Structure formats: structure tokens, C-alpha cells
Amino acid sequence: MEPQLDYGNWIRKKILLILGLSTLGVSALIIIPLGSFYRIIMALLFLIILISFLFPFYSYVMFSQKGGRFQEKVYNLIIQSLGTTVKGRILDIGSGNGVLAVKLAQQAGEAEVIGIDYWGKDWEYSKSVCEKNAQIGKVENRVHFQKGDAAALEFANDTFDGAISNLTFHEVQSAADKRAVLREALRVVKSGGRFAFVDYFYDAKYYGKAAEFEEYLKGLKLSQFEYKPLRDMMAVPTLLRHPKILGKVGIIYGRK
Ligand SMILES: C[S@@+](CC[C@H](N)C(=O)[O-])C[C@H]1O[C@@H](n2cnc3c(N)ncnc32)[C@H](O)[C@@H]1O
User: Fold this and answer.
1) In the beta sheet, which residues pair with residue 189?
2) Bridge-based pairing state of the strands 224-229 and 250-255
3) Are strands 111-117 and 143-147 parallel, antiparallel or unpaired?
4) Closest-lying ligand 1 atom to the alpha carbon of residue 119
5) Which residues are within 8 A (CB) of 90 and not within 5 positions of it... i.e. 6 or more apart?
6) pTM of the prediction?
7) 189 with 223: CB under 8 angstroms?
8) Which among 26, 126, 150, 206 is placed 20 to 30 Å from 98, CA to CA?
9) Dihedral angle at the C-alpha atoms of 237, 241, 246, 247, nearest 10 degrees?
């Protein structure tokens, strides 16, 4: 069997493990004979913990390639929104395991893709998996990865013919205002270059209210842009529309 791209998963296995073990732990506590009040409280606690485990577990399965393949679906949306006719150098900001960069290189045969990430220990991604994925995808000659900070990209203004990013801007801890990370991404794109970014663009905590953020985007004087909720661009099952999962996720794409 051909080796498959290692997507990793947007839901961290470590979190599932902690929630799964907590569920088992509380279920074991229920059987301690400390009276019916104790048992009722423990049963309620069990129910709460069970749901808080099952929900991310469901999301994990829906994201994975053996389940709903939603990571792949979002990557395809980004690539289609950027346009597969892109040429030249394209930057992927916050590459994770590099699958988006690899898939873009596969679909846009005249593009060279540079993926940057800081690959911190909070995440289950790495540069070595990125490089392995580029080999599996047979695009290692056109996809390169390097360590970098999305808040302060080490590239001059107007370097890239395009830029993409998925679910990264809101993760940048050093930037209190995530709009600054978006501006930093656009800074390195050439005038007229294309971009397609997915993030929690409908979460007011990160970007302000949607109507105000849209005005803000207009103020950036881009040649052209679209700002849309993910659910308007692709089918998203009801449970995945939860605000903590994909409910507040949106896409911004267009030309600088
Ligand atoms: C939710 S993951 C998404 C990864 C990848 N884009 C994907 O679709 O699987 C967020 C990524 O942002 C990266 N990240 C967080 N802060 C960063 C920063 N300041 N600079 C570069 N990458 C960062 C993390 O290392 C992680 O790989």
C-alpha cells in the first residue's frame, strides 16, 4: 500500500486521552458505596465528563481521513479559493504537518510553496513530518519548510505571489490583536498577489464583531476580497457548527 499523507488532527490526542481517562476515573468512583446522594452527584458528573469527551472525539473522527475527512475538505476549499492557476512562490503560514502546502503544490503545478511554523511543543506537528509528507506527495522539490513566527515573518514586503493559512492566526500568542497577524501575512504578498486564509474570523474575541471586521477589511484597500463563514462555502454538519469547533470559522480570500 502507498504511504499516506500524515494529516495529524486538529483535535489533540493528548486532550482526548485526558478526557477519556477522566471519564473512566469518574465511572469507577460511582461504584463506591457512599450513599445514593453521592451516586446521583457522581452519575451527573459522569454524564458531563462523558459528553465533554464524546464531543471532541466525534470532531476528531470527522476531521480524520478515516472519518469525515474535514481537514482535507477545508484544505481543498483554501486551494480552490486561492486558485490552482497560481504560479511563483506561495507562503503557507502555520503549516502544522504541511499537508495543505503539499496539496497546493500537487494541484498548482507551477507553484513553489514555502511553509513556516514554529512547531511548538503544544502541538502534535513537526517539521520532519512536513518534509516526509512532501516526499510522500512527490513534491519535495517544490515545497520547503522553515521555522518562523507568524507575528513577525522574516520576509521583506511584497515577497510572495500568494499566501495561505489555516487555523493559525488566532493561535499566535504574542499578538493580542489577531488582525495584526492577518496584516503581517498580507504584508509579504505582492500587490495583486492572491491569498486565502481560514481562521476563527467570526469570533469577536479575536477579530471583533463581523460587521466591524468587514469594515476593517475594506479599510485594508485590497484589490478584491471575500469574507464568508465556512458553512456558506461548504457543507458543515450541525455538531461541527459548534462555536468551539467550526461554527465561528470563516474564510477571507482575494487579491492584495
Ligand atoms: C490549529 S494548528 C493548524 C496547523 C495547520 N495549518 C493545519 O491545518 O493542520 C495551528 C498551528 O499554528 C502554529 N503556530 C502557532 N503560533 C505560531 C506562530 N507564532 N508562528 C508560527 N506558527 C504558529 C502551531 O505550531 C500549529 O502548527
Assistant:
1) 160
2) antiparallel
3) parallel
4) 25
5) 82, 104, 108, 111, 112, 113, 114, 160, 161, 162, 163, 164
6) 0.94
7) no
8) 206
9) 150
117 lines ligand 1 (CB under 6 A): yes
144-177, pLDDT tens digit by residue? 999 999 999 999 999 999 999 999 999 999 999 9
The response to whether residue 115 sits with its C-beta less than 6 Å from ligand 1 reads no
Ligand 1 contact via 120 beta carbon (within 6 Å): yes
- Residue count of the chain, please give it: 256
Q: Which three cell numbers stand for residue 238?
A: 450541525
Residues 113-150 as b/e (b if ≥16 CB within 10 A, e otherwise) read: bbbbbbbeeebebbbebbbbbbebbebeebbbbeebbb
